[in-house]
Amino acid sequence: MLKHGFSLVALPLLLGLFALMGPFGLAAAEARASYQLNLELNTDSASLQGEEFLTLTNDGKDTLKELFFRLDANTQARMQVREVLSADKLVLPGRLYRYTYLGREIEDPLLYQVFLSQPLEPGQELKLTIRYVLERLPQISRSYYLIDDPNRLGLGSWYPRLVTYQQGKWHPEVSELSDYSVSARVLDKLFAISPLAPVSLSSSDHTYRYSAERQSGLDLIFTPDLLLRTADVDDVQLRYYYPGKMQKWSTEALQITEEILRFFKQRYGVFPGKRLTIVATEDGKYPVISSQQLLILRNSFAEGKDEARSRQQLTEWLVYGIAQQYWGQRVRQNQEFVPWVTQGLALYTGQVYMQQKRKSYLLGDQTSENYLRSARQGWNTSLQTPRLILDRLPLNSFSALAQGKGYTIFRMLDVLLGKKVLENLEVQLQKRYLQKDLTVQDFQTELEKIAGKDLQWFFRQWVQESHVIDYAIQSLQVSEREGKYTVTVTVQRLGEAVMPVSIALVLKSGEVVFHLWDGNSRSERLSFEVGSEVKEVRLDPSGVTPDVDRSNNRFVNQGH
User: Fold this and answer.
1) Is the overall model pTM greater than 0.70, yes or no?
2) pLDDT in tens, 417-428
3) Using an 8 Å Cβ cutoff, are 217 and 176 in contact?
């Protein structure tokens, strides 16, 4: 069940938009689209005037009487479609998608519906002109980041993006390959950055031009004053943009990036691509945003901050961002659910890298806590809840579920199965699912083959269900006879989820003795013999299991 008190928008979306959703792992879209975008960026008002020329071919068997467009920018800015014109300049009726719930008509700010004057028959081509405005553009130090990000960390699509149509259904969360041509007029003197292809600038009218073919999205950055360093890491062309105040750290950032790239080359046998663009910003809401061949990093070297900690944060953000070039770009996960497999793998491989450096993993700890906080608050954390529902709840599903729960799952799999099993799994997935969508069932099947175990109990608990772990120590008794100590610990399972959990007996001699409890019983008395007096007992001392209440995981021997 969803948490009590959630917005009434959530439940009707499950009912009103269910017709827009369909099966997963589908074939290519049945309506091919290409975009020609004419933009005017006004830096004084932080707004963008847009004119979108869309060419659409119906390759399917169904007749289309309407079209849907994603207005993802409405999660952080304000996008408004002003008019939609047919090829013969007829104004087509359009509006935000509406549905009725409990007698009320509700508008969805993320979906725009256009009604065609004539049905688009199979094999026919359609040309539309969409005029729109995008206000309150997010900016960092007068830099504008137009990031076509399905996770909506940057801006989301900064133009009305056609919703994919497949096998008789509309799929708002699927991003298909399209062709792009962009002409952007900017009155200020800004520098344009694109990760995929060069941007040309016309000095006569200060217009930036850019084009790309067969891409799942398009990223453009307009910035006033970034410096640039370049490097070649074997076959990878590396570009690193940074503000002047980060000059001191630019060389070190490039060195760390090279080390991380070689780590993944050794792990998977390939680099993530032929080109990687990194843009360091002075500030930002998120530590790292990853897109196609692009990373946007928040400056970790703030004035007055501890440099060693800043250096560690930079390393963590870089390894997580580069990992996403493998998990999320080379191997994708269907976007109709939170991408917990790819995000979990990206964060987990970051942990492996930091462990090799003998460093703690602050980013991983933070994401785990985001998940635990949501679980403590009673949110439905099932990873089978559609994103159409999650995105409209007052819950940061990407942070709490895709990152937090995804990383937590892989930490548990590491303990259950071992690092070598997971590394073998990663290599297999990189080969078998290159440029494909990886479903959760595919992932489970591949993992069970390599591990040689049935893991349905694990996936039922942590993917399908929303249960939590809460283990506790109820009591501790110690008796001594002839120099031998018998320790009796009463442990409890307060939550519904079941996982093996370690028990650490901390002895007066300084020795720590470990035992494993299967965690099945609601309450159980466990007895152990040790050679020294016991100071205290701890459950899950390394914090591997996502226990929602650790205050009851430690019991001190008062008689000591």
Assistant:
1) yes
2) 999 999 999 999
3) no
